[in-house]
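agent> Task received from the user: take the single chain below, predict its 3D structure, and emit structure tokens. No templates, no multimer pairing.
agent> Plan: (1) validate residues, (2) run structure prediction, (3) serialize to tokens, (4) report one or two observations.
agent> Step 1 OK, no nonstandard residues flagged.
tool_call: predict_structure(input=
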Amino acid sequence: MAYKTKEDVSTPMSSFNFDTPQAESGRNYTTYDAILQPQVLLPSQFSDSRHRPAQLEPLRRLMAAILEDALRCFQRNINARGIRLRREFLEAKEWFFGSGAEGPFAFENVCSVLDLDPKQLRRNLRDWRTNQSARATRTNQVAS
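)
tool_result: status=success, residues=144
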């Protein structure tokens, strides 16, 4: 806002008439109007954030159990020979490393809810698998 005289700049707040519409007063109160306008909140926006973890806790526990089961199937059945156990391993492997999985219980979604890095978890599984293969090779060489 441009002021023309020194009087306009130094006008005390008591001389402002906030009851007069701005068109009549010649003053620009739009910045104050924007600040003082009531904000509209939806009930869902107002809910206390401290309650959210309690509401999500059952879902987080379920997702942690799914991840734990997949890790167990992957690690326990990595060298499985039987059809059922081999299928469990392959399903876990596909869940961890497959692409294009969708749905609330897809690996990436589970990691997101549990605040885990899916890429790091995949790297750890690959490293573990490599170590297991190396250990199995050494065991076979010693036994021979």
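agent> Step 4: summary for the user.
Residues 118-143 form the longest helix (26 residues).
agent> Done.
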